From TrEMBL:
Its EC number is 2.7.11.1. This is non-specific serine/threonine protein kinase. It comes from the Bacteria. InterPro entries: Kinase-like_dom_sf, NEK_Ser/Thr_kinase, Prot_kinase_dom, Ser/Thr_kinase_AS. CDD domains: STKc_PknB_like (cd14014). PROSITE patterns: PROTEIN_KINASE_DOM, PROTEIN_KINASE_ST. Keywords: ATP-binding, Kinase, Nucleotide-binding, Transferase. It comes from Stigmatella ashevillensis. Signal peptide: none annotated. Residues 23-303 form the Protein kinase domain. Residues 394-405 have a biased composition (Low complexity). Residues 394-426 are annotated as: Disordered. The lineage of its organism: Bacteria, Pseudomonadati, Myxococcota, Myxococcia, Myxococcales.
Length: 480
């Protein structure tokens, strides 16, 4: 009788009881493209309070060393505390770095807002905490570079927010991991100056945008805007002057209070400040934190009423799976040129068709936020984020499949006429492309599905790939 071989360990889905360094896995808790998160306890004290153990899916992933280094430099009540780090050896011999941080009994920011329907006062307090966390980072010369709702966890009490996922961070003298025009991050949260830089220099392979603390503050503004309106802010159309320099007049989207009258004037003003196209007008993280804390001290009815009336229907969040880093629950927004700017260089390099990204039309703007912004060239090393992916959401259920990524979107994306096909061996021409449904695609994280309005399948975005000789269709690609 043949003996059944035990299933091979998968870093993305370790079973309970697996030893990782001096820790024992208790339960799967979440995951992203680069890492999986587990609830774990010490091997020598299994009655101890659980911690969050993040394990790299790829061997020797340098993102984890970057996150360990930054967390070891910064200690703040609104940043998870680093407890341990090391390397786990797979039975096949590959080495996967891991780190252990405090377990947060909470939910991602946007999930929390839907469940608890906070007031402007509560939002101001949480934003102030995040601004204080950024203040601590910036004081050390560090940048987060991927501030967004999916990287913010709110304790179930609603009184404490933590800024998470430092795999995309930057600290002084950090080594360059993956050179590209822009640092790592999520397109919908990129600052105007970063997007203008890519529009200006996307044809220059040596150009590097140097992220600044104000980029983190703009991303915090986008997070706040989406939190209170359910939409992302849209840029006005950029213009080019006689010298060939791209400029931006402002933000074309309405002020938050115009979309949601329940937003208190104080919160509305601070969100607009963070979304200014002039970086210096955003101020510093400390200045914003002080302003938010002062505004939250008042108890006016506009500050204390819920931002979301009880009678409004609330979409139910799908269960978390290893690929479901941040379930999409807000109304779909309409994009103009932002995603094309933020992804122009990537799409050209991979030969991807950008037609899907520009679907829909933008509503007529009711206000323009900020003043003109220009672009200047700089240098910076870049890295890729790990993705906490609701890492410590205690309500996450452990998957019962041996393969990560089981979502409701179980229909493969529909091929587009003229799309590139894999060769006879089923391989696509570029290592970052995958063969799916008889065609070649570029796979993106779920957060970008919402940002770029792309079709999803098993929790991931898919962009069709065409031959590099195909004429580009996006505005940035046709500009000199």
């Amino acid at each position: 009788m043949q003996t059944r071989r035990p299933p091979e360990l998968n870093p993305a889905l370790l079973p309970p009881g697996t030893a990782v360094g001096s820790w024992r896995v208790v339960a799967w808790a979440g995951g992203g493209v680069h890492g999986a998160v587990y609830q774990a306890v010490p091997l020598d004290d299994e009655r101890a309070s659980p911690m969050a153990l993040k394990l790299a899916l790829l061997p020797r992933d340098a993102r984890f060393a970057r996150e360990v280094e930054l967390l070891s430099r910064v200690r703040h009540p609104h940043i998870p505390r680093l407890r341990d780090s090391g390397t786990w050896q797979h039975p096949r011999g590959t080495l996967h770095p891991y780190l252990v941080i405090d377990w947060v009994d909470g939910a991602p920011l946007y999930d929390w807002a839907q469940q608890l329907r906070p007031s402007s006062q509560q939002v101001l307090r949480l934003l102030a905490q995040l601004a204080r966390a950024l203040q601590a980072l910036h004081a050390q010369g560090c940048l987060h570079r991927d501030v967004k709702g999916g990287n913010v966890l709110v304790h179930h009490s609603g009184n404490q927010a933590l800024l998470t996922d430092f795999g995309s961070s930057r600290y002084p003298d950090a080594a360059t991991l993956t050179p590209s025009t822009l640092p790592p991050g999520t397109p919908a949260y990129r600052s105007p100056e970063a997007c203008l830089f890519e529009l200006q220099f996307f044809r220059d392979p040596q150009a590097r945008y140097a992220a600044q603390p104000t980029d983190d503050l703009y991303a915090l503004g986008v997070t706040a805007y989406r939190l209170v309106t359910g939409e992302y802010p849209e840029f006005a159309e950029p213009t080019k002057n006689a010298a060939g320099i791209w400029h931006l007049e402002g933000i074309a989207s309405p002020a938050p209070r115009a979309l949601n009258p329940r937003v208190a004037p104080q919160l509305n003003a601070l969100i607009l400040r963070m979304l200014s196209v002039q970086p210096q007008e955003r101020g510093t993280a400390e200045e914003l934190a002080v302003a938010m804390e002062q505004a939250a001290k008042h108890s006016h009815p506009e500050l204390t009423q819920s931002l979301f009336p009880q009678e409004e229907p609330v979409a139910q969040a799908p269960p978390l799976t290893p690929d479901a880093t941040e379930p999409i629950k807000y109304p779909a927004h309409r994009w103009t040129w932002l995603p094309r700017i933020a992804t122009a260089a990537v799409l050209l390099a991979l030969g991807a068709w950008t037609g899907w990204i520009a679907r829909g039309t933008s509503p007529a703007p009711t206000a323009v936020i900020g003043q003109k912004a220009g672009v200047a060239q700089g240098k910076d090393g870049v890295a890729s984020g790990v993705g906490d992916a609701a890492a410590t959401a205690s309500s996450a259920a452990s998957p019962n499949s041996a393969t990560p990524g089981v979502l409701a979107e179980d229909t493969p994306p529909t091929p587009v006429p003229g799309q590139m096909r894999p060769d006879a061996k089923g391989r696509c021409p570029h290592k970052q492309q995958i063969a799916l449904n008889g065609n070649c695609w570029v796979e993106l994280e779920r957060e970008k599905c919402e940002a770029l309005d792309l079709p999803t399948y098993k929790g991931m975005c898919y962009m069709p790939v065409f031959s590099p000789k195909r004429p580009p269709t996006s505005t940035p690609a046709t500009q000199p």
